[in-house]
Amino acid sequence: MYGTMEEGEYKFQQVDLPDDDCFCSQVEFNGKTDTLFFNDGVRRIDFILVYEDEDKKEFEKRHTFARQKRRREYFEASLMKMGLELEATRSVIDENLMFVKVHMPWDVLCTYAEVLHIKLPIQPNDLSSRPSLWRYVSCVTKPFYPDEKLIHKETDYFTAPFEKDRLEYFCIKDRDIFFTPAMRSRMAFYILSRAPYEIRGSIKKFGITKLLDSGVYKGAYPLHDCRFNVESIESDCPNERYLLFQEWAHPKSFYKMQPLDLIRKYYGEKIGIYFAWLGFYTLMLAVAAVVGLGCFIYGYKTQETSTWSKEVCDPEIGGKIVMCPQCDKDCKFWRLNSTCEASKKLCIFDNFGTLVFAVFMSIWVTVFLELWKRYQAELEYEWDTVEFLEQEEPPRPEYEAKCIYEKKNPITGVKETVPYSTCGKCFRLFFPASFHIFQIMLILASVVAITIYRLAAFFAFSTKLRTEDLKELEPLKEYVTPQMATAVTASLISVVVIMILNMLYERVAIWITDFELPRTRTEYENSLTLKMFLFQFVNYYSSCFYIAFAKGKAVGFPGQPVYLLGKYRNEECDPGGCLIELTTQLSIIMGGKAIWNNIQEVLFPWLKNLYARHCSGQSVASDKGCPRWEQDYRLQSISKLGLFYEYLEMVIQFGFVTLFVASFPLAPVLALVNNLFEIRVDAWKITTQFRRMVPEKASTIGAWQPILQGIAILAVATNTMIIAFTSDMIPRLVYYWAFSVYPYTENYSNTMTGYINSTLSIFNISDFSEESRPLSPARNITTCRYRDFRYPPGHPREYDHTVYYWHVIAAKMAFIIVVEHIVYLTKFILAYIIPDVPYAVKEQIKREKYLTQVILHETNLKLLFYFMFLLLLSDFKAGVPDFLVL
């Protein structure tokens, strides 16, 4: 069925075909299931629209589809009026489905290439490229790059924004391939997004997006060029999808660099810049992972030689130290050596190597961001997005559809229509902000709820694990402490709560952003990015911030404990500190998040496609008899937000790697392993399980760039404060350098000997209040120990903080100020000396602008002078020129 436009009427030429599917397939597609052309084999398919034929519906249901049919016919007539050519064909498998093939003729392509400011080649790049230092090791690195015999390097051109009236200045060797399929699909979608489908009075409704939402069309997508797992033998199929699968998405190619130019050519710049950033981030993570793994190995090797760990495990020291109960009434007295295993694990992460690694990561994150800016600048030039400005981006169809108010543009002075008045704009900004604050408060409420659970769980575990009468728990007592059991269960609950809140808030954030009605697609994504990241920041990191900076900081002492909400006694840290609990929290959240995301990204799309095939009674083998557009229709459609969730996942991971790395040196290692899978999983997913994305233009990673910079700045403060307040490093350093000053210490041959004893204060059990006094009687003890620096009972200032406590506080504050200033100064120097744009790229940009000026604009001046000469010559022939008379 072919559609033509004559005098504004929509007419069809019906082609009657036999009902036999095999014969139909051969006639309709000439036996070429991977064809990308109309039936004539000449006009290329730039887009596919899918709808359900109402004439095949049951008679009693047809009237419900009449409105949809009118809208679709008007929409398709509008498309042809705008210059597109359409061809419809029935499904080979389901006779109810109709596929409308969309083709953009040459004149339409030229028109919209100029409208969208698409840059196209004008001259080969004549600047000699500087030889890379990597050429000396090319024989070693060659196996890690895609096969050059399959993916050829393309010629480098200088480009300029396309102008329809100056075709002769562009390098047009073949009109059929001058505009790439990605460019053609992008221009086709631009037209589809603005073609009207209904007009009622002064109200015009338009856009394929709304037709998809209302069910008028079942799908709209550009075509993949062939099957991903079989190399096409047809001459008109470029096999780029097959090459991407073999050299990029296949698991066997996990060690190879990504073919970014081919990714950009096939999927567009927005997809290309995401995978370029992900690959660069993963490469930089390899450096951090090596250093972090070295720090971990150092801690693991030194855990057995740690003096304070030995003292905790020693039966003569830790075994004789009786600790005070850590909850009221039901908790009992316990021996310090019961935390022996936890103390050894703590030494792995809380050592001087961690300090070095935290400083290294603060420098690493700056180098990463600065080098990424340079690499991004290179990609901007190579991919012709240097002059991609936001004001060139067209408004969203949803924005244009609601433009009913007139407003004077302060820049141009021309009146233009906007979708809201001044008061309406204020309301659209204020209401979402208020609702967003409410959502964040809801998250904080969940954090408080989990904190209360921690207090109750700690009480329960303390009663169970400290009870000597429960013989069945005896094997666990050596390895599991109440703090550890509470941390693990609370972390698991946090992961579940995080996932649930994510699903709820996702819908709310999209609704709020739609209500704000941003003008362009970039503004929409930036607004949604900020909302979602603020939510995710609070959702994922709040529990970590609580453990790092709140837990165990305001607990009082056994005689006067501090209560939360006047009922729950604040939980204390392990005698070794809260660092090991923070490490546990990070490892569980990072691991749980990675596992859940991989299940979502791999298993769900595969199961959905498998279920769709099963319901339709088709198998993979049946694809051989289906045309290209029908094979793609059975794949999953891309989310409206596209790469948003992929970026969000990686940025949250980046926060874990940088914000709390002082407590978990293995975070870069876990992130590296996850990202090596992430790259291939994302590649496999979009290449094999999803329809081809509509190519979009992008020059940077957008709003994620300032978010990454903000995380990098915050990471310095958080890691410094973790070392100062969460770990036990500063008290150890103070003890190491000044232990002999204090009268209550002894001068041992080993300067760290006696450190554990110095960090535990003494409490007289007769000073317990009635609310906190343990129910179980004390056995032959009059005092117990607790973690703090307070004067012992009987001292004139009993239970007040000692001078040593204030010295430690002063050392912590001095450490924060000095280290932060040194690191920030180093970051500033590095950011200054590393230019954002390489010198070679600047030269090429200047050369390209010069050629554009010479070839396109100065040519206009020559033509102007030529016409003036002709005019002057004609005046001389007619008589004295007018300007001589004047």
Automatic annotation (TrEMBL):
Keyword Glycoprotein: yes
InterPro entries for the chain: Anoct_dimer, Anoctamin, Anoctamin_TM
Transmembrane portions of the chain: 274-300, 352-372, 437-461, 481-505, 528-549, 651-677, 698-725, 804-825, 863-880
Main location: membrane
Residues of the Anoctamin transmembrane domain: 263-848
Membrane topology designation: Multi-pass membrane protein
Classification via Pfam families: Anoct_dimer (PF16178), Anoctamin (PF04547)
Keywords: Cell membrane, Glycoprotein, Membrane, Transmembrane, Transmembrane helix
Superkingdom in the source lineage: Eukaryota
Domain Anoctamin dimerisation: 37-260
Gene Ontology biological process terms from the UniProt entry: calcium activated phosphatidylcholine scrambling; calcium activated phosphatidylserine scrambling
Keyword Cell inner membrane set for record: no
GO CC annotation terms, alphabetical: plasma membrane
Annotated GO MF terms: chloride channel activity; protein dimerization activity
Coiled coil segments of this chain: none
Cellular localisation: Cell membrane; Membrane
Family: Belongs to the anoctamin family.
Protein name: Anoctamin
